[in-house]
Amino acid sequence: MRTQSRPVRELALWLRSQRKRSGMTYAQLAAHTGYSTSSLSRAASGERLPSSTVVEAFAQGCGGDPRKAAALWRRARYTTYRKADDEGTVAMLPDYIRSFAQLRAAVLELYRRAGSPSLRQLEATAVGRFGGLPRSSVSRLLRGQSIPSRDLLIAFVRACSVTDGVETGVWESAWERAHQTAQYDRALRRGVGSGDPREQLRSNLRTAEQRLKQLTRARAVHVKQRAEYLAKYRAFADSRPGPHREDRNILDAWFENDASVSRRRELLQHLAATDSATSTVQREIDEVAQRIAVLRERLTAQGAVDVAE
Asked: Is 0.70 topped by the overall pTM?
């Protein structure tokens, strides 16, 4: 486990500031919260990530904002426990999802950013608020063992509390696009169920051509999205004070406050995601175009290409 990550230190700093603001000693805080002075002191030391219950009790004991404490803890938990082989990868945002495999990756990212709550916690959170969220269904979703229904996905997103600033409608749209891709794959495998091989080829060709049109439109959307986020990032960078943008130290100083750091991170994440999404769609376009060429060759060989023109 990695320790002393920046979010862990920020959490500890916030806890210490809350205690200082309250004027309480650790002994007084221990009497108020029921936790030992050593537990509270360790939580505010930044040496390791404390439990969420200790952080919650610490914040409430000092009269701090429990929502702020929870948000800081979730972020610290995410950076502390995220696997090393995940680093450097582009987080899949729901805006750019086109398959259920990508949807699962985004769901895992959301789950980690929510602090990786237990399945029991998620189930309890959803009861009476977001509908049913059975632990067995969530376990299969996180393990990639099943494709979630739209209702299960939305209940899961809401139970996680953290949605990275997007509405549940964005996740619904992501599910629709993934479902559309799955339908295309099934259509190619199933065909028309006819014994006529030429009719089977015609059906597959029509399906592939429809898919190519969908992917071409999706590529155009991603290219437009990237241009928009690039313009936003440039406008944001230009708005920051400083005489020399080339100076990396000055750039770092510009982004010291939380709002600027968060906004910069958001814009860079979208830029990376649009690049990744565009590349993914282009690979799909190339694959489908190649499939269309093969189908046309086979139809031509059978003298049936005219019906597919």
From this structure: no
